[in-house]
C-alpha cells in the first residue's frame, strides 16, 4: 500500500435512492445554455454547439444540506438541472450507444456566483471562480436508469421559499442526453463516477442567506437545500 505525506481526502459521493450505498463521484461536467429560453435570457443564440465547464468532485452536497453563502459574491444564483451519472467508460462514444454508458439520473442545482461570472465574461477569462466553489453542486439521490428509463420529457422546476422560479420541461433541452454524453466524450474519456449537469431552464435568479431551495424532475426525484449564513 502506498504511503501519503498527508491523509487522502474523503471520497466525494452522492446518495442513491432507496439504498445505503453511495455513488462515488470522479468528476463533474456541466453544460452551458442548453435550454433555448435560458439562452435567450442570457442574450445568446439558441443553437450554439454545447460547451462544458467543470466543478470539483467535492463540490457535491446532499439534499437536505445547509450551504454557507459563499464568499466574494453578492449575487448567488440558482440553476436547477437534470444530472446524468456515468457508469461505463467511453471515449468518442457514438450517439446511438451513449445511453448505455448512463448509470442513472438525479436532480442537481448549479449554484453560480453570477457577478463573478459576468466579470469573467467581460474580461474573457475562465469561469472557474464563478462556478467551481465549495458546496456549489448540490445533488439529490441518484436513481438507476434501469428503474427510470432515459427521460426525454418531464417537468423540471425550482422554487425559492415555496415560490416557483424555474418551470420547464426536459423536452426543451437543445441537446438531449445522448448528444451531451457523446459530445462530452469527444473531449475527454468519460469514466464511471462522472456526473454531467445537463443545463437549466429559464428563470434563474438570486438567493439570499436563509432561503430554502426546493426543486425536482418528474420521474427522477427532488432536492431541497438551505442557504445559510456566510462563514466567518
TrEMBL record:
<dbReference type="Pfam" id="PF01557">
    <property type="entry name" value="FAA_hydrolase"/>
</dbReference>
<dbReference type="GO" id="GO:0016787">
    <property type="term" value="F:hydrolase activity"/>
</dbReference>
<dbReference type="InterPro" id="IPR036663">
    <property type="entry name" value="Fumarylacetoacetase_C_sf"/>
</dbReference>
<feature type="domain" description="Fumarylacetoacetase-like C-terminal">
    <location>
        <begin position="28"/>
        <end position="227"/>
    </location>
</feature>
<keyword id="KW-0479">Metal-binding</keyword>
<protein>
    <submittedName>
        <fullName>Fumarylacetoacetate hydrolase family protein</fullName>
    </submittedName>
</protein>
<dbReference type="InterPro" id="IPR011234">
    <property type="entry name" value="Fumarylacetoacetase-like_C"/>
</dbReference>
<keyword id="KW-0378">Hydrolase</keyword>
Amino acid at each position: 500500500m502506498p504511503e501519503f505525506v498527508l491523509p487522502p481526502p474523503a471520497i466525494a459521493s452522492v446518495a442513491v435512492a432507496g439504498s445505503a450505498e453511495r455513488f462515488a463521484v470522479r468528476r463533474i461536467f456541466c453544460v452551458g445554455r442548453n435550454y433555448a429560453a435560458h439562452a435567450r435570457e442570457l442574450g445568446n443564440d439558441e443553437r450554439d454547439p454545447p460547451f462544458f465547464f467543470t466543478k470539483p468532485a467535492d463540490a457535491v452536497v446532499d439534499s437536505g444540506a445547509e450551504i454557507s453563502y459563499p464568499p466574494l459574491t453578492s449575487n448567488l444564483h440558482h440553476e436547477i438541472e437534470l444530472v446524468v451519472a456515468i457508469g461505463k467508460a467511453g471515449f468518442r462514444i457514438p450517439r446511438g450507444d451513449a445511453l448505455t454508458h448512463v448509470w442513472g439520473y438525479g436532480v442537481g442545482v448549479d449554484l453560480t456566483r453570477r457577478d463573478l461570472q459576468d466579470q469573467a465574461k467581460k474580461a474573457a477569462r475562465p469561469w472557474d471562480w464563478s462556478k467551481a466553489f465549495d458546496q456549489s453542486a448540490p445533488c439529490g439521490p441518484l436513481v438507476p436508469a434501469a428503474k427510470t428509463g432515459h427521460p426525454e420529457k418531464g417537468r423540471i422546476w425550482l422554487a425559492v421559499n415555496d415560490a416557483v422560479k424555474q418551470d420547464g420541461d426536459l423536452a426543451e433541452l437543445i441537446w438531449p442526453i445522448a448528444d451531451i454524453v457523446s459530445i462530452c466524450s469527444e473531449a475527454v474519456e468519460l469514466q464511471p463516477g462522472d456526473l454531467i449537469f445537463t443545463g437549466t431552464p429559464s428563470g434563474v435568479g438570486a438567493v439570499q442567506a436563509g432561503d430554502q431551495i426546493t426543486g425536482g424532475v418528474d420521474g427522477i426525484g427532488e432536492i431541497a437545500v438551505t442557504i445559510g449564513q456566510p462563514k466567518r
